[in-house]
Structure formats: structure tokens, C-alpha cells
Amino acid sequence: MNFIRNQLEGYGMSETMIVYVSNIVMVLFIAAISIIANLITKKIVLTVISRVVSKYRHNWSQIVLEKNVLHRLSHLVPAIIIYFSAWSFPIYQVLIERLAAVYMIAVTIMVINALLNAFDEIYRSFEVSKVRPIKGYIQVMKIVLFIIGGILIVAGLIGQNPLIILSGLGALSAVLMLVFKDSILGLVAGIQLSSNDMVRVGDWIEMPNYNADGDVVDITLNTVKVMNFDKTITMIPSYALISDSFRNWRSMQLSGGRRIKRSVQVDTTSIGFCTDEMIAEFKKIHYLSDYVTSRLQEIEDYNREHRIDRGSKVNGRSLTNVGVFREYIHQYLRHHPKIHQEMTLIVRQLAPGDNGLPLEIYAFSNDTAWAVYESVQADIFDHIFAVAPMFGLRLFQNPTGHDITRLQELEERPAAAGTESRIG
């Protein structure tokens, strides 16, 4: 500044003019140095760093560059130059230093924010991120960062100690608790969800209270984002997963088997003992030939041992068509390529009711994919509906319009036949 003023005095300027012109020249000089320093930092230093980093195959280095961490850090250079040049303007020195300090604080906050974003993306590249998501914790750190940064900025502008402002926040704690209620609840819920491994990104969850039925695509501080199977998005509050019940299908997917639990209703009036003709037909069925032969031998030995009179089928033991049918379904499932043979497989009778005798299939498919599972289940019951008449069984269903029409036709035929005979 003194050099500039000495040069201006040589031109015969007045003292007032020298002050104004010297200040303008100094401002332009500092601005030029700041711009040049910023350009050097961005065009040379950052370019060299980017080339060095690009030689390494670490994914994290590329992510740091993509998040513009170094680019934002370069803004500190002109701020530092302006800060240490403030003494050139004694009258405005304090104001310039405060504004430069506030700017440096703001830049530092943005750099740390970019670092947190980069760290989150780096962490997501590992499989552990699906088990232990940290996005909620990072959001909490950002909230704390911006609160502290805001306090430091206000303290820098008014020239007060930040601790004085922090002490005054005690009176606003109730207001802060109200403003950040969801964030606090979300933080507590996120800790419980993570520590108890209740939900992960990629899990299929079902929560009827929120009409959510799909895959978890994101877990944040306040919400859990679920993409439903109809491609709609449901946002569930994080604390709702702690306070309300939901179903997580992860264990089913990891087990490799998906349960099939469905019944067919057998008309009880079609159940009866097997005739010799039926037994002869059953022996021709691949899955039943060994069973029928061994079972008949077992029944014959039992009846002979107990000297049972076989003049009536009620006496002793006999094969029933529903029992053979149940064994056939069991053997059919045992030989089905899409049924998991290492998991529970039961074909059982449930309590009979108004709709007949329920035969329940309890098994697991060996493919958990939804489309494959439904196809396997439909294929099994298609076969059961088709083969039931071969065992002399009728599957129950309530009368339909077609059944009523057939009944009316059967009633009209004898009447028509009697009229024709009288006319003849």
C-alpha cells in the first residue's frame, strides 16, 4: 500500500485522491492475486492430483474426485489471501477478516459435507452396506455439522465467542426437540434397526398399515423407501418399523425355499373303499405300484392274523380311494423337480366342514422367485384337479348356474319321454 501511495504522489495527486485510488488499486491487486491463485490451484494442482489418482485402481479415489471435494477445497486459497491482506485496509480490517473467516467456515462445511457424501458412496460399494446401512448416521452428522457451522458463522459475524451462543441454545432446547423430533426418532429407530438387523436394503418387506409390499431400496434418517411390486414407492417413517409390526421375507429368500400351503376340498360323498377294478388301475400308476402292492400285503397279513371275516368290507382294514389319493400326491411331490426335498413336505387331512374334506399340501418350492413359485404352485394343483376323478373322487365346489341348468334338463327329459309314450 505504501509503495502504491508513493507512486501516486509522484503524479501530483491530492491526499484524498491518493487514498481512494490506492485503495482501488490494492483491491484490484488482491482480487487479481486471488483469481490467479484460484486458477493455479484448479488448473494445475487439481489436474496433477487427478492424473495421479487416475493411475490407481482404488474406487474411493475416483469417488472423491467426482464429489468435487478438492474442487471445493480450492476455494479456501483466495479466502486465505484476502484474510491476510486485510491489514492493508486498517479501517475495514476487522470487517474484511470477519467476512473472510465466515467464507472459510462455509467452504470448510461444504468440503466436509462432500467428504461425507463420498464416504457414503464408498461404503455403499461394499456388501456390508446392505447389512449395516449408515446413511442415517451420516445425515445426523450433517445436521450437527450445519448447526455447528451456523453457530460459528453467526459468532464470526457478530464477533462473539461461539461458546456464548452455545450457552444460549439451552433455552431453545425444547424448540429444537420439537423441530428435530422426526430426526431424533429416526436416529433411535435407525440404531435399533441396524443393531438388531431388522431390515436391510434389498429386503422384501410387507407392511399392510402403510400399503407397502416390495423391496427396500433406501434407508435414510427419517424414512425407509420401499418399491412395491406395482412399481409405486411407499415412504415409511423409520420409527414405524419399530413401533408397528411388519413382515420381512429375507429369511425365506436366504433359505432357498418358498412355502406352498393350499388345500383342495374333496366331496365326502365320493369317498369309499377301493374296488378290485380300482386297485388294478392303481397298480398301473408309476408312483403307486409299489405302495399298493406293499399296502395290500400289509392289510392281508393283518386281517389274517386277527382272523377277520372279509365277507363285509367294514370288517378289518381296507384301502380307501382318498387314502391312496393322498399317498399319490405325496409321491408326486417327492418326485417333482421344483419341490425342495430337504424341507417339510406333508399332505394332510384337515377337519371336514361344509365344503367337504380339505386335503392340504404343505411343501416348499426350490425357487423363491415370485413368477417361478406361482408357476410351480399352479402346475401342481392343475395336476391334482385333473387326476382326482381317476381315484373316484369329486372335488367340492358350490353349485353354479351350469349345474342348475343341467339339473333342470335332467328333470325335463323324463317328463318329455312320458308325453311321447302317451301320444304313441
UniProtKB/TrEMBL annotation:
Residue ranges annotated for the Mechanosensitive ion channel MscS C-terminal domain, each copy included: 327-386
Keywords: Cell inner membrane, Cell membrane, Membrane, Stress response, Transmembrane, Transmembrane helix
Any GO BP: cellular response to osmotic stress
Residues covered by the Mechanosensitive ion channel MscS domain: 182-250
One CC-aspect GO term: plasma membrane
GO molecular function, one term: mechanosensitive monoatomic ion channel activity
Transmembrane segments: 20-41, 76-95, 101-119, 140-158, 164-191
Keyword Zinc-finger: no
Compartments where located: Cell inner membrane
Membrane topology recorded in Swiss-Prot or TrEMBL: Multi-pass membrane protein
One Pfam family recorded for the sequence: MS_channel_3rd
PANTHER family according to UniProt: MINICONDUCTANCE MECHANOSENSITIVE CHANNEL YBDG (PTHR30414)
Homology family: Belongs to the MscS (TC 1.A.23) family.
Protein name listed in UniProt: Mechanosensing system component YbdG
Organism expressing this protein natively: Saccharibacillus brassicae
